[in-house]
Design goal:
Two copies of one chain form a homodimer. Chain A has 458 residues and is of the alpha/beta class. Chain A contains 15 helices and 16 strands. In chain A, the strands form two sheets. In chain A, strands 1-10-12-11-13-16-14-15 form an eight-stranded mixed beta sheet, with helices on both faces. Chain A has an eight-stranded mixed beta sheet with strand order 3-2-9-5-6-7-8-4. The radius of gyration of chain A is 24 Å and the shape is elongated.
Chain lengths: 458, 458
């Protein structure tokens, strides 16, 4: 820490500090230097990912991850650490899924498949039917009952590679996974299988949540790897009479108790005013959940570590929220928002990190134009570290329930090129996260928290 | 291609086009879409890297790469393809190098080492001596003759991890490799070994060019992997009497002829005015040279492919220069500049890509403030693709000799976090390049060439 800044801190209670801007640049430099030279965060990411793999809500792995996060925060010398309970859904995918192409002409071929999250199972006997390939909503509608009844719908609309921001490509293609089952059930389909939502060509199936319409039959829904999807599409061209055998034994187990984990450094001047930040600790049952979203948890815990390490004492209370259940029913976010409302807690801002641990370049800001403008004034402090984009936009699923309370919401935005190669699949392992890239995100969030703490957002 | 833009092109000869800005945005979008959805470039990168591994100047691999590039350009329907000859140095590292720690107390241990480029060999008998570890220039000076004579100097100053832009860390540490041998020879060292210039902890030694001072004895110079350097440093603390055995049989072979490869699309209005762009095709003999600099070659060849694919006819001649010998004596850059001068060729700009195939974020511009300002006016067109930084700064080694001719020089700037993990080492393989990241760079250069062609830089 530089002398001028210490002096400035010492004088802060007495008078406005002349060297405000120069000092801010020094603190931001210290924050980035600490993040880039310390290995605690990367070590924590490895532990979380390897010890609590598959920590979807309701599992022993999720419980273990919650206790681990609580113990980690408790070891950091914070002022407060506590659990925030809520009910979460529990589901189990059962035995390993089977997807098999049956063709008299081409022979039988196994496909790499997995059940979508919270889809019903086929039962142990499985389901066998002809396959109809669909690459757009329009095509589905045109096929209608005549083309679909009694068949398995194979959704095969690839993610569009031409978008710079791959979340756009995801947004256009995710209907297949999220709503494809009911859309096909409306026309009498017996099951659906969808191309994994990735631009990578590999043999990992990518799972993710799906939703049934209440008024339609619930049919089994699986994902197939992109390699499998391309093979299946090719075989269908050679033999349209192909049948597909699908077997999933997933089961719904109702609801159980789980927890958000909260840790705080109390504010020295306004302890009742809070800056909150977090990621979600749950991850799909087929993955280590490194980029989605072990990184977000680790980066936001890192904010508290860096504040303590640099001896920065916040004026307002700064709080990490390790959210449970982002993937399924967003109960952690709902519980947190309900608690904020019940306690009438004042929040200066809430920040989420849930877009992967790649080199960050800005924040998406869900707030008034005045607040967006104020944050843009800090651009010159962060641009030397590649953080240049501060734009109006959506924030994060875990904090969105705070929106009705008019709390400024921010999301860290990172380079999205590689994100969907990993999301919701067994390939999302800790070693796919590059430590410097993750730590630039930790430092970006810490810097924004530091600036909000000093200057507010109003 | 959009109708409005075709219309605009058609009218361009008759009058200024009203829709200039809107059309530019459309063309830039088309350029990025083409780059992100076509696989030619990545396939070319793989071929270059796997077929012509270790293509340092003077080798058969370098010759093969030149012929390959010539054939590739000749297959693209360009207006001109030709070779530009020059003399290049030739050197051979000989047999696999040996580095062995000899310690009565700790036992003997092999280290992962390689000769630095153009260093003299130890001869087949090798050299054995005590080791003195040095982590700064100051420390070297203090040790002086008394501490160094007859010993091997072990340079072990790590790259500083706290810089955002890792080329800064490299710039601070590269003296050990580039000038360390002569600095130590001044005090009577018998050889030097330097910590590889990477922040990664792995067992790859990283080579690179080194230079001898004319007035001092030439002593052998090797690199050791960071894992090896950390081990050696630890062993020295336990047993300062450790000896090191080093053996290299490298040999200088004088000079031979090699070539730049040049390909052009002739300008429709001002064919004698040129926009040049390129990367260097040579790569160290221990690597595939993917990020350094297969990517630069491929990205700049891609500019021509995209112009042709989209049917964009340039007003000025656009020219790719596939440079030979960036790594050693920069003879390709010198030959190109000499030719420009001799032919009195007018260049609107020269652009180099030689900073790795990672997600790009801007251009470093070596030009007048007015030119920098003009390029900044195009920011709004490129910012949607993450290209936001257009700053005054250095360009590239291959084009720097054009500076005295007052040609505006630009370098593509990409995310540098991972670059030095690979540079000059066996780990710089084609699969370490992520296709979308590389192609964003291809599109960024193509877009800038398109804009310079339309609006100039004056």
């Amino acid at each position: 820490m530089r002398f001028t800044w210490i002096l400035c801190l010492a004088l802060a209670g007495l008078s406005a500090c002349n060297n405000e801007k120069a000092n801010d640049a020094d603190v931001v430099k210290d924050i980035f230097s600490e993040a880039l030279s310390d290995t605690t965060a990367y070590s924590n990411l490895k532990t979380l990912c390897t010890r609590y793999e598959g920590r979807i809500c309701g599992t022993a792995e999720a419980d273990g991850a919650v206790r681990w996060a609580e113990a980690l925060l408790s070891s950091m010398g914070l002022d407060t650490v506590y659990l925030q309970p809520m009910m979460v859904p529990k589901w189990n995918r059962g035995e390993e899924e089977v997807g098999k192409v049956l063709s008299a002409a081409l022979g039988d071929h196994l496909l790499s498949v997995c059940a979508l999250g919270w889809a019903v199972g086929t039962g142990p006997e499985g389901v066998t039917a002809e396959v109809v390939e669909v690459t757009s909503k329009d095509q589905l509608e045109k096929l209608g009952d005549a083309g679909i009844r009694g068949k398995i719908v194979f959704y095969n609309q690839p993610m569009d590679p031409t978008h710079y921001y791959t979340f756009e490509s995801y947004g256009e293609a995710v209907w297949q996974r999220a709503r494809g089952a009911s859309m096909a059930a409306r026309y009498g389909a017996v099951a659906v299988i969808n191309r994994s939502l990735t631009m990578a060509s590999d043999d990992y199936p990518h799972t993710g949540i799906m939703h049934y319409a209440d008024t339609l039959p619930k049919i089994p829904a699986l994902a197939v790897s992109t390699v499998g999807a391309d093979s299946l599409s090719g075989w269908l061209k050679k033999d349209p009479a192909i049948k597909l055998f699908l077997r999933t034994t997933s089961q719904d187990h109702g609801e159980v108790t789980s927890y958000n984990v909260i840790g705080e450094i109390r504010g020295s001047e306004k302890p009742d005013e809070i800056i909150a930040f977090g990621g979600h600790i749950d991850a799909w049952d087929n993955t280590q959940g490194a980029h989605d979203d072990g990184v977000g948890v680790i980066q936001t815990i890192e904010v508290l570590r860096i504040f303590k390490k640099l001896g920065i004492r916040p004026k307002h209370t700064i709080r990490v929220v390790v959210f449970m259940d982002e993937e399924v029913a967003q109960r952690g976010g709902a519980a947190y928002a309900a608690s904020v409302k019940a306690k009438n807690e004042k929040h200066l801002a809430a920040i989420e990190s849930d877009r992967g641990g790649f080199t960050p370049y800005g924040f998406s800001i869900d707030a008034s134009p005045m607040t967006v403008g104020k944050i843009n004034n800090w651009k010159k402090l962060l641009e030397p570290y590649g953080i240049w984009s501060f734009k109006k936009g959506g924030s994060g699923v875990d904090i969105r329930d705070l929106q009705p309370m008019n709390i400024p919401l921010l999301a860290l935005v990172s380079d999205s090129q590689r994100y969907f190669d990993y999301q919701h699949s067994p390939s999302d392992t800790w070693d796919k996260v590059y430590p410097r890239e993750m730590q630039l995100g930790s430092a970006a969030i810490t810097s924004i928290v530091f600036l909000i703490d000093n200057y507010g957002l109003e």
